[in-house]
Amino acid sequence: MNEFRRSKELFVRSQDCLVGGVNSPARSYSPFPIFMEDSEGSKIYDVDGNEFIDYSLAFGPQIFGHRHPRIKQAVERQLERGWAFGTSTEKEVELAELVSKHYSSIDKVRVVNTGTEATMSALRLARGYTGRDKIVKFEGGFHGAHDSVLVQAGSGASTHGAPDSPGVPRELAEKTIVLPWNDKEKLKSVFEEIGGEIACVIAEPVFGNAGCIPPKDGFLELIRDLTSDYGSLFVLDEVITGFRVSMGGAQELFGLEPDLTTLGKVAGGGYPIGIFGGKQEIMKHLSPEGDVYQAGTFSGNPVTTAASIEAIKLLKEDNIIDKANRKGEKIRSKLNKAVKGLPVNVEGISSMFSIFLCSEEINDYGDLEKCDFEAYKKFHREMAKNGVYLPPSQYELCFISYVHSDREIEDTVDIASDVLEKVL
Ligand code: PLP
Predict the structure, then answer these.
(1) Modified residue N6-(pyridoxal phosphate)lysine is at which positions (predicted)?
(2) Is 114's C-beta closer than 6 angstroms to any atom of ligand 1?
């Protein structure tokens, strides 16, 4: 059974110098976070020398497994030549071409540093392009930690009881209309009432920050139709699903054509990245072609772009997405079989899944209230003691990489069913 003595000591130290002892609230969990220091393939290792099969995968990016040799070599080659020029580079051009090649809705992109920056900039562009201020998002949808979207936000914001953050100006929060996910009637009636004032609808194609909740039939298509009819933009937040559910993201899988797309996580091969893009007609409004301002010292950083280009090539050449999808199907079906009779529901698509401690189907953010959050905390800790690292909250997704072995999946299922019998 794993013990966490050194993590506990480090948490005492970190609380004196880091807010809450962490650099992101999503990493804060009870009784104290486990401090990691090493990784290889499907495994991560903590400061006490414990080994874990990792299903958090850095909150998503590591579909390749940790420390993939090709991404490592690409980064090392770039390090030999420099890691920050603040100038244009050929690699930025190569990356932009690769992204447009795989996303038919994208003519032009801008590369930034995080998903947060990508969605923040895409919303500014949507507002600048339409000349409207209001945006629509969905309850429990998480699009990063910036003001317009920290309104009924999922992920860490919900886990820590702050879906509406103090500090967001009321006047700005009022411009964000929040609707229930998958509720076609509410969406239609908002557009009928104030469609002409809505700059855009921003949505994750598959809900990923209030557990994994796929769209109901026709819901994304309805967003597409209404936004087109009322002259609003459809901003598809593919920070989680981009380069994960297929090379062309969820838009390829579902046959959608959004106006703007945001990417991150897998797109950076594990390096910090955000990308947003769309058709030239809209993108030309961005500075320096247009007057919607957006800029960044580290945007298109050479190390990140080197990792990203290699990651995208690798995804295709090694057929990583299909392989990871098959692992995802396997773990979901095995877990569901193993927990029959317990109030547990494993849902998801592709290489992502949620273990809801609840016997009913979860269709929206409100349904999560039916889940047993106290039991999940114990489940998370007991799994870690038994060598399986899960995301620390039921709001966050579990991810599987293409290098997780069948043996690891079997072991995980056996451990999870034993632990769940104990904690429920
Ligand atoms: N959009 C979605 C759908 C996300 O899940 C996240 C982060 O989890 C973001 C945006 C923000 O990305 P980042 O954490 O890289 O800023």
Answers:
(1) 265
(2) yes
Sketch out the chain's domains with CATH numbers: 5-67+319-423 (3.90.1150.10), 69-317 (3.40.640.10)
Written as six digits, the tokens of 410 are 């079997």
ipTM higher than the 0.90 cut: yes
Residue from 57, 103, 401 nearest 249 by CA: 103
Candidates 63, 67, 16, 61; CA nearest to 38 is 67
C-beta of 207 in contact with ligand 1 (< 6 A): no
Q: How confident is the model at residue 398 (pLDDT cuts 50, 70, 90)?
A: very high
Tell me what pLDDT residue 156 has: 66
The number of beta carbons lying within 10 Å of the beta carbon of residue 288 is: 7
Q: What is the pLDDT of residues 5-44, one digit of tens each?
A: 999 999 999 999 999 999 999 999 999 999 999 999 999 9
Q: What is the mean pLDDT of residues 167-183?
A: 93
∠ CA 225-227-233, nearest 5°, is: 135
Transcribe 301-321 into DSSP letters. Answer: -HHHHHHHHHHHHHHHHTTHH
Minimal-distance CA residue to ligand 1 atom 1: 143
Please give the span between the terminal C-alpha atoms of the chain, in angstroms, as a whole number.
20
How confident is the prediction for the chain on average, in pLDDT? 96
Q: What is the pTM of this model?
A: 0.97
In angstroms, what is the span from residue 71 Cα to ligand 1's centroid?
22
For 245: left if phi > 0, alpha if psi spans -120 to 50, otherwise beta; the answer is alpha
Ligand 1 closest atom vs CA 241:
3
311-368 pLDDT per residue, tens: 999 999 999 999 999 999 999 999 999 999 999 999 999 999 999 999 888 888 889 9
* pLDDT band, very low/low/confident/very high, at 301 (cuts 50, 70, 90): very high
**Residue whose CA lies nearest to ligand 1 atom number 12:** 115
For residue 204 and ligand 1, the question of a CB distance below 6 A is answered with yes
